[in-house]
Design goal:
The chain has two domains: 129 residues, Glycogen Phosphorylase B (Rossmann fold); 170 residues, Glycogen Phosphorylase B (Rossmann fold), CATH 3.40.50. Helix content is 29%, strand content 15%. By secondary structure, it is α/β, with parallel strands linked by helices. The strands form two sheets. It has a seven-stranded parallel sheet, sandwiched between helices. The protein is globular and about 60 Å long. Helix 6 packs across helix 7 and helix 6 packs across helix 12. It is built from twelve helices and twelve strands.
């Protein structure tokens, strides 16, 4: 994949190679849930250059999937559709809307004048609101005759070694308060594991050093156990850490999907959205914790709300520790990760 700052968005495809552009201008978890669909496109169009329109900060992650040739920077605040895609050269052979189902994303791709457009509505399949994200995009491609397996989620592990081999990764961060379990509870989990002999390291996303240090203090950890905070942990370092981890304890955020993609056992805490819409695949490697009300729909809360969701608050530290204990045998170290994904 073209690294940032080289050929870049205005680079041209190799002679005779056709281009396929995919719009997925969202976050890390969104990118990783699209891997099965991207892999289906790669198999169906082996001679095409696959260009992903996504935030530039995801360039390393997109390259790490092994199915994206080049990232074309495109982003908008929140989960909005970008205003434009800086496309150069002839129109793409195919444009694929993996961003959503509304007219804005379709119009954005139509403006590139692709020879074919794969999208929901306007001749595509019907949109289903209560459908797992991986299933949704594979079903879209299947409508157009392109096989894609929602279970095909794995990405290669980085060649670089883990900074903490055998760690248990606990990630308290999320980009919205609705999906952030209280730091005191994460600290209780980290402290219990530290007391059991695990090594605990706290990492923080950009600007999230203070809560990470607070968690470390409450867990009885030295300040030196906090990594990051002034900046995000570089993706390849984070991926190496997760790939070599014993388990990841995390909320409904990007690191949960990274654990799934790398095959690392995980315990995932859900609140405003049901695990059947965003959770890991079923199986012994992954455990989900969720406490909906008896009549709750699959999306009972606001995933982008400003306070922790009530269903998330029903999860206790004891439950999390029990779930960790029921996963495959632990390694010898613990890593506590706090903050946003890069």
């Amino acid at each position: 994949m073209t690294p940032p700052g080289s050929a870049g968005p205005r680079g041209t495809a190799p002679c005779g190679q056709r281009r396929l552009v995919v719009l997925r201008a969202l976050g890390l978890g969104d990118l990783l849930t699209a891997v099965p669909a991207l892999r289906g496109l790669r198999r169906a169009y082996p001679g095409h250059e696959i260009v992903l329109a996504a935030p530039g900060r995801l360039a390393e992650a997109a390259g790490a999937t092994g199915v994206v040739d080049r990232l074309l920077p495109a982003a908008a605040p929140g989960r909005a559709v970008p205003g434009a895609i800086d496309w150069a050269g002839p129109p793409p052979a195919i444009a694929v809307d993996l961003h959503g189902n509304g007219p804005p994303s379709r119009r954005l791709l139509q403006a590139l004048r692709p020879h074919r457009l794969f999208a929901y509505a306007d001749g595509g399949p019907p949109w289903c609101e209560d459908e797992h994200e991986r299933d949704r995009w594979c079903r879209l491609l299947s409508w157009y005759g392109i096989p894609a397996d929602p279970g095909d989620v794995r990405i290669p592990a980085p060649d670089t070694p883990s900074p903490v081999p055998g760690a248990t990764v606990v990630h308290p961060g999320a980009d919205a308060a609705a999906r952030r379990w209280p730091p005191e509870r994460f600290a209780a989990v980290a402290g219990a594991l530290r007391a059991a002999g695990h090594r605990v390291v706290v990492t923080a996303g950009a600007g999230e050093g203070p809560p990470a240090h607070r968690i470390a203090r409450l867990a009885g950890l030295p300040a030196s156990s906090v990594l990051g905070g002034a900046a995000d942990v570089p993706f390849m370092e984070l991926a190496a850490l997760v790939a070599g981890a014993r388990v990841v304890v995390v909320g409904d955020t990007g690191l949960a999907h990274l654990a799934t993609a790398l095959g690392t056992p995980s315990v995932v805490l859900f609140g405003p959205v049901a695990p059947r819409l965003w959770g890991p695949p079923d199986g012994p490697r992954h455990r989900v914790l969720w406490h909906p009300g008896p009549d709750d729909p699959p999306r009972p809360g606001d995933a982008h709300g400003e306070r922790p969701d009530e269903r998330l608050l029903r999860i206790t530290p004891a439950e999390v520790l029990d779930a960790v204990g029921r996963l495959p045998r632990p390694g010898s170290e613990l890593l506590l990760v706090a903050g946003r994904m890069p």
